[in-house]
Hints:
Mean pLDDT: 92
Strand order of the largest sheet: 2-1-3-4-5-6
Radius of gyration: 21 Å
CATH architecture of the largest domain: 3-Layer(aba) Sandwich
Order of helices and strands: EHHEHEEHEHEEHEHEHEEHHH
Strand content: 15-25%
Number of domains: 2
Helix content: 25-40%
Distance between the termini: 19 Å
Shape: globular
Structural class: alpha/beta
Largest sheet: 6 strands, parallel
Number of strands: 11
CATH topology of the largest domain: Rossmann fold
Amino acid sequence: MNEKLNLFYEEPETDRWLPLDRYPRRLIRRLMRGKPRVGGQRRVFLNLCAGLDKLGVEYRVNDYQHIKSHRKELACIIGKPHVLNKIQWENPILFGAAVYSHPMDDSDLLKRLSIRKVLVPGEWMRKMCGPFYGDAVVAWPVGIDTDKWQPSSSDHKTTDILIYDKVLWEHDRYESELLQPIREELKRRKHSFSEIRYGFYKEEDFHRRLQQCRAMIFLCEHETQGIAYQQALSCGVPILAWDQGGFWRDPAYYPHKVKFAPVSSVPYWDERCGVKFEKAGDFSEKLDRFQERLNRDEFRPRDYILENLTLEKSSQEYVRLCKQAMVEE
């Protein structure tokens, strides 16, 4: 695009006890905990910007004064949704991919704002949103920084398997039904392994673990994109993925509000990435197959990322969608 993109992204932050106490609380958190963890939705924004930088595409970030005085320019609201209420938007809008969990959270969205497109991270979510957003909804995954997430040499591989625990709901149940049987099976086979749990690590630690492991077991009910497992693929680490399919099981919606199926825990995937299993009872058999292919060096997970999910390719598609949004009414 000839003009700068107008990007908007903010993390929601509210006062807890006193007016404006969010500011000293932010400072205290930084002093106590150090640099904050980068969440998935913020990673979308940061990787989009990194891809645009690589392409030489200029952009502004959170320049509300500019957008209010240039009402015909496209506002690219990456998220989060509270940004939609930040000002009285009169611009055409490209919204996403850090959007609502479900369209019912803002059923009048397309009526009250001039939203040209709604970007969601993956295809199954696009299908779930389709009845509400129609042709306006598009699946767009952010790219992975393949320069940072690179394979390490075999000399650095000190652990057979990294277990990535992103079980979001009923964790106690799955601890006994899924995680513990997996640990026992790995011990029985004398595989060395380490574990990392979503929400309890910093990105640098995950990067270090990936440099040390030969393979990863990825455990999550479902993913809209799955940046972490794609970072592993970019590092050349094949994955044995729990992909149970079935319904979208977010307890805020299922089963009393929404019943949508099928979903996936690895929505971007092909045979080069690894092997999938549906339930704990399948694990041992699928581990056999996974190990056989791993020993024969059949997996090419990084090739999949380089072909489909680089920073440049993703950001180039984002620019194309911006151009398309500006010619649509």
